């Protein structure tokens, strides 16, 4: 179904207004103390279609902590560095457990189930780090985001990174546990330092939707013509986003929204409508699985109104 630019703009504005009026917002994450300071009433939504039309609603230009959404981009970078050998270090099956769970690592010899749970993303960060010094690894991740978002002003929120560095004991446990199986190559404190910092990149919905365009368009940004990954790789990253992007809420997200998507505890979600659009939504209140409560509801409304679910109208 083709959606005209004016219809897209009015649907996005409508949904942003409806979401702002809702009393149910979920709970802002507090386990990273700095994230607890975010305004729970914030809401932003940006959709960029194949022609480059940008439909924006609400707080679309307010930066927020992208947190686990960064895992899509570190996966993309690491695949570019080591190719399919990456899958020897991390699986690609849904975990059915919370994002920070440790239990499965014991049964699978320290190999995380997928690159989007914390353990998997820490293992991917380790792969990137093996090819760099810590500062260079972080610089490369940040530059990748800036290039994809076409915005060199994107920065890491140092207060968020420091806050997680002080309190990220569980991620420390995951990393040490994987290290005991030889799954992590580099010193654990370096790996965690890079991981906490890439999670603390701050972006707006507009920047994030721009950065995700290559996933919606067979690996290339249709406006710049810049090829980021081959089409097959974009398709596969989307597949992992669909099955694993919302942790143990991935089934529910596919059922209700019907798009590949990746959430973060900052309340953001990047969603991909293949061939149609890249979508970023932000609402800091989370549901029980740690995914944005209103973000998911907004995306459900969007795909229903536009007929964009990959599973049919
Ligand atoms: N930095 C966060 C953590 O490791 C990311 C988790 C998330 O966004 N789900 O706990």
TrEMBL record:
<feature type="binding site">
    <location>
        <position position="247"/>
    </location>
    <ligand>
        <name>substrate</name>
    </ligand>
</feature>
<keyword id="KW-0007">Acetylation</keyword>
<dbReference type="InterPro" id="IPR015868">
    <property type="entry name" value="Glutaminase"/>
</dbReference>
<dbReference type="InterPro" id="IPR012338">
    <property type="entry name" value="Beta-lactam/transpept-like"/>
</dbReference>
<feature type="binding site">
    <location>
        <position position="68"/>
    </location>
    <ligand>
        <name>substrate</name>
    </ligand>
</feature>
<feature type="binding site">
    <location>
        <position position="118"/>
    </location>
    <ligand>
        <name>substrate</name>
    </ligand>
</feature>
<comment type="subunit">
    <text>Homotetramer.</text>
</comment>
<feature type="binding site">
    <location>
        <position position="195"/>
    </location>
    <ligand>
        <name>substrate</name>
    </ligand>
</feature>
<comment type="similarity">
    <text>Belongs to the glutaminase family.</text>
</comment>
<feature type="binding site">
    <location>
        <position position="164"/>
    </location>
    <ligand>
        <name>substrate</name>
    </ligand>
</feature>
<dbReference type="Pfam" id="PF04960">
    <property type="entry name" value="Glutaminase"/>
</dbReference>
<protein>
    <recommendedName>
        <fullName>Glutaminase</fullName>
        <ecNumber>3.5.1.2</ecNumber>
    </recommendedName>
</protein>
<feature type="binding site">
    <location>
        <position position="171"/>
    </location>
    <ligand>
        <name>substrate</name>
    </ligand>
</feature>
<feature type="binding site">
    <location>
        <position position="265"/>
    </location>
    <ligand>
        <name>substrate</name>
    </ligand>
</feature>
<keyword id="KW-0378">Hydrolase</keyword>
């Amino acid at each position: 179904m083709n959606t005209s630019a004016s219809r897209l703009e009015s649907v996005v504005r409508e949904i942003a207004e409806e979401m702002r009026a809702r009393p149910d917002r979920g709970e802002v994450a507090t386990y990273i103390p700095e994230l607890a300071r975010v305004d729970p009433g914030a809401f932003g939504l940006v959709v960029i279609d194949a022609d480059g039309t940008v439909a924006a609603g609400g707080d679309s230009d307010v930066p927020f902590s992208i947190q686990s959404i960064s895992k899509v981009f570190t996966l993309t970078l690491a695949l570019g560095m080591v190719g399919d050998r990456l899958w020897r270090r991390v699986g690609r099956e849904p975990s059915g457990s919370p994002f920070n769970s440790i239990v499965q690592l014991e049964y699978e010899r320290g190999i995380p189930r997928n690159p989007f749970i914390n353990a998997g993303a820490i293992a991917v960060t380790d792969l990137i780090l093996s090819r760099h010094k810590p500062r260079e690894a972080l610089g490369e991740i940040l530059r990748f985001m800036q290039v994809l978002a076409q915005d060199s002003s994107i920065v890491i929120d140092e207060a968020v990174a420091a806050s997680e560095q002080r309190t990220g004991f569980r991620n420390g446990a995951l990393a040490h546990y994987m290290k005991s199986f030889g799954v992590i190559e580099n010193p654990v404190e370096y790996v965690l330092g890079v991981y906490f910092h890439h999670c603390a990149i701050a972006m707006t919905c507009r920047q994030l939707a721009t950065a995700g365009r290559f996933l919606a368009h067979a690996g290339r940004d249709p406006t710049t013509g810049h090829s980021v990954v081959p089409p097959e790789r974009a398709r596969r990253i989307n597949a992992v986003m669909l099955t694993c992007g919302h942790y143990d809420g991935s089934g529910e997200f596919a059922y209700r929204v019907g798009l590949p998507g990746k959430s973060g505890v900052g309340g953001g979600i990047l969603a991909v409508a293949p061939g149609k659009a890249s979508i970023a939504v932000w609402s800091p209140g989370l549901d029980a699985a740690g995914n944005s409560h209103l973000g998911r509801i907004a995306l459900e409304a969007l795909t229903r109104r536009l007929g964009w679910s990959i599973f049919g109208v």
